[in-house]
Design goal:
The complex is a heterodimer of chains A (234) and B (100). Chain A has 234 residues and is α/β, with parallel strands linked by helices. Chain A has a single domain, classed as NAD(P)-binding Rossmann-like Domain (Rossmann fold, 3-Layer(aba) Sandwich). In chain A, β1, α1 and β2 form a beta-alpha-beta unit. The radius of gyration of chain A is 17 Å and the shape is globular. Chain B is mainly α. Helix content of chain B is 54%, strand content 0%. Chain B is built from 4 helices and no strands. In chain B, α1 crosses α2 and α1 crosses α4. The radius of gyration of chain B is 13 Å and the shape is globular. The chains are: A alpha/beta (234), B mainly alpha (100). The interface between A and B is small, with 8 and 8 residues.
């Protein structure tokens, strides 16, 4: 059993997930990364568990392997997600299904598997990733925003269901950050989005890390079911 | 796992649940004990914990990933969780089926 705080990060191979994994490792935590493809992150206290978050049997196997390696799960950061920016009239059902499977179903499956392990210790932290696209109802992001609105609803209901087990469940809603997720978004669209924020700058990884860390703090055990948007969006 | 081994796993989960329960509210380790529903000893969270403890034990013993808590089981007219005996029978059925 690890004597370090054990944090599971989904979508840990690149972008925000990679940054979160590296940050927690630097803080002295043990990190279990879940991504579809294997990560090249090498660290004494990092272990990689390749799985598609929407693949239920694969996720059950991944969490069983995490338990064998680290002995428990203290926190889960449900970061794995795919973006879909397209007009609704040009969006296929297959594309929409893929977004919902990764963003919504994957978040649910990971939260459920993590909570099964957290319940033994009667404590745990789950942080889901939403987006400012939900409160801003951004045109061109119907499916993406809907999948994340579902994540917010999950966050609130899981907060109630997991509360008797000592597990909190919260979400952070970032503004655009310069990661692969928004690489295909036009500059004009980004400018228009920033204009809707009270603080009109691009988000940075450290902004997200700050909120995630806040939710993970032992002192945050009275905070659950909350969604914190970055950049002054509501 | 045979029926006796499954019953032992359920009794072990009951013992774990009893550790957190008041001495006056201990669940009796007997096939006829009512678990959930009319006259049952468990509330919904207690049932979830018991099912997950047994699931862990069964999967640990068999090396499989069998879910004992799907929607079908939760919504059956004759709940498989009404007594220890019905729960044991249900686990046996699930173990004869596919994983998850």
């Amino acid at each position: 059993m690890s004597d370090r705080t054990v944090i599971v990060v989904t979508g840990a191979r690149k972008g925000l997930g990679r940054a979160l994994a590296e940050h927690f490792l630097a803080q002295g935590c043990a990190v279990a990364g879940i991504s579809r493809q294997a990560s090249d992150l090498v660290h004494e206290h990092y272990a990689d568990f390749p799985a598609d978050v929407a693949d239920e049997p694969a996720m059950a196997r991944a969490f069983a392997a995490i338990n064998r390696r680290f002995g428990r799960v203290d926190a889960l950061v449900n970061n794995a997600g795919i973006a879909a920016m397209n007009h609704a009239l040009l969006t296929t059902a297959e594309g929409a299904r893929r977004v919902f499977e990764t963003n919504t179903l994957g978040t649910f499956i990971a939260a459920r598997e993590a909570a099964k392990q957290m319940r033994r210790a009667r404590r745990g932290r789950i942080v889901n990733l939403s987006t400012v696209a939900v409160p801003l109802s951004l045109a061109g992001e119907a499916v993406y925003a809907a999948s994340k609105a579902a994540v917010e609803s999950l966050t609130r209901v899981l907060a109630r269901e997991f509360s008797p087990l000592g597990i909190t469940c919260n979400a952070v809603g970032p503004t655009p950050i310069d990661t692969d997720l928004i690489r295909g978004v036009g500059r004009e669209k980004i400018r228009a989005l920033l204009a809707q924020q009270a603080i009109g700058r691009m988000g940075e990884v450290r902004d997200v890390v700050n909120v995630v860390e806040f939710f993970l703090k032992p002192e945050s055990d009275f905070i659950t079911g909350q969604v914190v948007y970055l950049g002054g969006v509501w | 796992m045979n029926q006796d081994e499954i019953l032992a796993a359920v009794y072990e989960a009951i013992a774990r649940a009893n550790e957190l329960r008041d001495p006056s509210a201990q669940i009796v380790q007997d096939p006829a004990t009512a678990l959930f529903g009319a006259g049952g000893a468990l509330d919904s969270l207690g049932l979830v914990s018991l099912v997950l403890d047994v699931e862990d034990a069964v999967n640990g013993a068999t090396g499989r990933a069998v879910s004992l808590s799907d929607d079908r089981a939760m919504s059956q007219a004759r709940s498989p969780f009404r007594t220890v005996a019905s729960f044991v029978d249900y686990i046996g059925e699930r173990l004869r089926g596919p994983d998850m």
